[in-house]
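[Q] Does anyone have a clean structure-token version of this?
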Amino acid sequence: MALKSFIEVGPDSHFPIQNLPFGIFKPEPTSPPRPGVAIGDYVLDLSTISVSGLFEADEAKLRDNPNLREKSLVPMSKVEMLLPIAIGDYTDFFSSMHHARNCGIMFRGPENAINPNWFQLPIAYHGRSSSIVVSGTDIIRPRGQGHPSGNSPPYFGPSRKLDFELEMAAVVGPGNELGKPVDVNEAGDHIFGLVLMNDWSARDIQAWEYVPLGPFLGKSFGTTISPWIVTLDALEPFACDAPKQDPQPLPYLAEKISKNYDISLEVQIKPAGQEDSCVVTRSNFNHLYWTVTQQLAHHTINGCNLRPGDLLGTGTISGPEPESYGCLLELTWNGQKSLSLNGTTRKFLEDGDEVVFSGCSKGDGYKVGFGTCSGKILPSP
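[A] Here you go.
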């Protein structure tokens, strides 16, 4: 029997009864944060539901009690969404082969595009959790050092190559004890759900600093995530085979069932001073070479303990075609060409530009979506 809700939900909504994502919200500016579930254009206040005792009974009180419905179903347009979790640690992977190859060609040439270790393990670095913000939060253009010109000192000032990165991220559920790795075939039990993620990147700062220890100031100034955590249960109808991995992964990464999810992803840029946004890329979660379960299992294989709320970013999700590249670094080939946006052009982001990610899976007459993940660039102080 098809699932049906007594809440009216339009066919284009990202949050039908088949998708009940979790988030944290404030119904009023002075209200304390509380947990909620998205349904159509409403947020179901789980605090009110809990006080009413509905978690302990399988009955129709919410449907049949108008007063309870009015108290517990808050219009989404009237609430303030917060970060859905307290993020203790944040790791960013590098799991899209197309993205890895494009970056390698740019900086090392086609003959050494992807380092040999990339095909053996999910590459990652440890990021900064304190600067992860919820969708809608402005991002201040970072300052830092860039490559020197000739014999001059390094450039210092606002980043000249500010970029977005189209990613998703897994939210850790139970986690594991220190010294006890998670089996790759049980890793899905440790993922609460997925969110959209924009790992903003200052390409010029990163290019100067990353040898030999990797990203630092070029990444840590801001990372944006969407407010709703979509569960793997909701995404299960859209599971698909992951790409064939060659060479065969080592046994601890070899999955009995290796799957991705068919999630269509889109990036729009609204240029400063303009009313309309322009689609700049369309990609899909199924382009990932390393699965989120392999990422989690690899993260713990040395005994590292993951904790509830930890965030594991996928890395930029690029497809094989130029229109599916997941960042401006690829779309403009490191600024060698310009991107056309509603009569204006961009090589990298300018002050006042707003970037909006969206993602959803399309079912039979319904969508399982993530809403949006947005941020606007403000000038350096």
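[Q] Thanks! Anything notable?
[A] The chain has a mean pLDDT of 96.
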